[in-house]
Amino acid sequence: MTAQVQTERSVNSRRIRVGANISGFILDLEPSIADYVASLVDVYRRGKERVDRISVNVPRNTAIQHPRQGLQKLVSEPDDTVRTTSSFLLSMVFLSGQVRMHSSSPRTGSLYDNKGASFIESFDLPMLSVWGEYRAMSASRGGIMDQDADPSSLVLKSTIHSSENTLRPSLLPFITELVNRIERRMPKASSSSSSFSNPSSVSHLPPELNASDDGPPVSGMHITFALRVDRSKLQLTCQPDVNVIAGVYWDSGGFLLNVSRSGRRMSFIGNVGGLTIGLKHGFLSEDCVRLNAHNLAFSTTFTGADNDSKIAVNSISIVVDTDVSGGLRFSRFQDVLCFKAVWLDRIPVLSSTPSGELVDQTFKAKAPPTPSAVPTKNDFTTAVLVRFRRIGFNVDLGQSISSVRLDMLDVTFQSRIEKMCAELSVSIGDLNMLATGNISGDARIPNFSFNTTRRKTPISTSFDGLGEPRMLDMSLKSGILEMTLESDYQKILHLR
């Protein structure tokens, strides 16, 4: 590691520049790391509990100070009102790295003996470049923040360069043992967290110190995180059991995360040139299963309720726009079954409920809820918009059956979920199907649309033909439907 640190200081500003190049590093992991991480969490929880017990009994005299005393101090010291700004610049390059997964062994095993080191699987980390800038909010020499100045900002930009990795089934024992250790630790973590959160162990605050502060809120930090990922490839091989390979092929793309200063608005934006998922036999050139997404753009925005901006409803919106194409060959469906047997059936899954938790809850005395403990529930609105400019899909059912081609243009899914109603609409500009083989035919459906609205309570403006309020509205529209179907060159269906 080579690092350079440079500091600059003037009357009104302080700046620190840090640059570093890291040639590479090796990280060795064993499944027992789950126990050590859980121990660190327990130490943190116990320390936090003890600090809470001490802090509730310490009087906060600084909060009782009269505001005129602070005002007189500011007026009597005019030199302390000079604003100063601080900034921190970071530039780091990680040239390479490797993560090696080991099986559990005694201390004399491979992890602690570098000469005879052996590992079950390794993962090569790509080259990583990180650039960051932190600008602190303006402050006086006395350390008083200026509420009228620009808020503190943190900008991080990183680039993950091209990489290729191939994972083998030998990684599964490491994952299985890691998950088993986590499952064994979960009942202990749930019991310790319940004991730490016992309200009787922490004394209550005095009434005079429990009053809320009427002063202006402290400005937060504006956070921007940008990530760019160059062309990469990740493969999962089934060897030595069978020569079947599943791969994820990533073209260049980037992501942007933006968090407002108040933390009540968060947006996540992404743009991917291309993403391909495929599965095939190692000796064949064509994939058994293939799915491509081209020019994928998406954005997710979360907005929290804020009285200052007159936003009274929490909301989340999701927008996706892309082209999708894919294919499926049923003649090679055994490759899918082989991948399922080697990888999917052997990947452990964490149980949703830790062992012993249901028994503890059965015999646990339930205290009657107090009116002050009832949380207030805010309204939440979810809006989803997914648009496919084009969907193309090929299904090969075999030479003796048929080959089907599906093309759809301007496919849009819209959904809006609120507290009192939920809406869903699907529209397809043009749908074409073409089948060739012993079973052949074609179909075309233009201008197809489906809309539905479900309400929890009826409204006075929605009534059916009998004058009753409607709880569910559905509508289906389509253009002129054209369809033909033949079997062994005999027409069995003709619809115009």
Main traits of this protein?
496 residues; 5 helices
Oligomer: single chain
State which percent range the strand residues make up. over 45%
Weakly predicted, low-confidence segments = 73-80, 106-117, 201-219, 354-367, 370-376
H-E order: EEEHHEEEEEEHEEEEEEEHHEEEEEEE
Helix content: 10-25%
Largest sheet: 20 strands, mixed
Number of strands: 23
Spatial extent as radius of gyration: 31 Å
Mean pLDDT: 80
Structural class: mainly beta
Distance between the termini: 73 Å
Overall form:
globular
Number of helices: 5
Per-chain topology:
Blueprint: E1 2-9, E2 13-22, E3 26-29, H1 33-55, H2 67-76, E4 85-94, E5 97-101, E6 121-125, E7 128-135, E8 152-160, E9 163-167, H3 172-196, E10 221-229, E11 232-237, E12 244-250, E13 253-259, E14 265-281, E15 289-303, E16 314-329, H4 333-342, H5 357-362, E17 380-396, E18 402-417, E19 421-437, E20 439-455, E21 472-477, E22 482-487, E23 490-495
Parallel strand pairs: 2-4, 3-5, 8-10, 9-11, 16-17
Antiparallel strand pairs: 1-2, 4-7, 5-6, 7-8, 10-13, 11-12, 12-14, 13-14, 14-15, 15-16, 17-18, 18-19, 19-20, 20-21, 20-22, 22-23
Helix pairs in contact: 1-3
